[in-house]
Design brief:
It is a multi-pass membrane protein. By secondary structure, the protein is mainly alpha-helical. It has six helices and four strands.
Length: 262
């Protein structure tokens, strides 16, 4: 019993306190943490830190001093009961000295266990503080990751919008095609009737039919193209505004959830 109370338990608690001190140095990112296995390439391995926090908490609470205090109380009660019921004729001087020695030993162990219990409670409090610090660091990292993801999403939207803006050259080509396509179409239909190159070069008197069809058709095609382009631009503007508002609302929602968890 003396070995368990005075030696083994104290050694175990002091070893745990040393490990807690290393954890505190690692979490606070002191300059002297480079030699610890928590540091990898200048960064702290939070997974290992969290695992060791749990392990040290378990070691500290394993066979707590209160358990030994109850055992000592039971032993002292048994000793007192024995001394109260022993035959007075058997209470020799040697037995009396043994009883007094046991009482003194019980008292000494009880006092040491009280101090050890305070020691354990302080260790538990220090572990709780470091666990709270790890939770804060994890929440801060998650918040930065969320902001980074939102920034990446915003950049991707900007790239998409820039790609749409780069299509202006293609729009110009399509406009030229829309301007010349009706005339080409009409000319291909009426060319053999309007132009006669068999005897001499001359233009048919009915060439006005070509312009009568070509001009209105070209105008209609261009107006239709302009109407479609205007409608497409308006739809893109509404979609862009909606996506910006959605991104802002999403960021606010994520920040609100992170603040609640923190």
């Amino acid at each position: 019993m003396s070995d368990l109370v005075a030696t083994s338990n104290e050694v175990k608690q002091r070893e745990a306190r040393t490990s807690i001190r290393q954890l505190e140095k690692a979490i606070s990112v002191n300059d002297d943490t480079t030699g610890f296995y928590y540091s990898k390439d200048g960064t702290i391995d939070l997974r290992t830190v969290a695992s060791d926090l749990t392990e040290h908490h378990r070691r500290i609470l394993h066979r707590p001093p209160k358990l030994y205090s109850k055992v000592i109380d039971a032993l002292e009660a048994a000793t007192d009961c024995f001394w109260a019921h022993v035959d007075p004729t058997h209470k020799t001087k040697a037995l009396d000295q043994l009883h007094a020695t046991l009482k003194d030993r019980f008292h000494c162990h009880r006092v040491r266990l009280v101090g050890l219990e305070k020691y354990v409670s302080i260790s538990v409090e220090r572990l709780n503080i470091q666990r709270s610090m790890v939770s804060f660091i994890t929440a801060e990292i998650a918040q930065k990751d969320a902001k980074l993801n939102l920034k990446i999403a915003g950049d991707q939207r900007k790239i998409a919008h820039a790609s749409k803006s780069d299509s202006q050259a293609m729009k110009a080509l399509s406009l030229l095609g829309a301007a010349f396509l009706p005339g080409t179409f009409i000319a291909s239909i009426f060319s053999m009737s309007f132009f006669d190159f068999q005897t001499q070069v001359h233009v048919s008197s009915k060439i006005w039919i070509y312009f009568a069809f070509m001009v209105p058709l070209t105008t209609a095609v261009l107006l239709g193209w302009l109407f479609w382009d205007h409608k497409r631009r308006r739809l893109q503007h509404l979609t862009r505004s909606s996506s910006n508002n959605s991104g802002s609302d999403t960021e606010k929602a994520i920040m609100f959830e992170i603040s609640k968890r923190a």
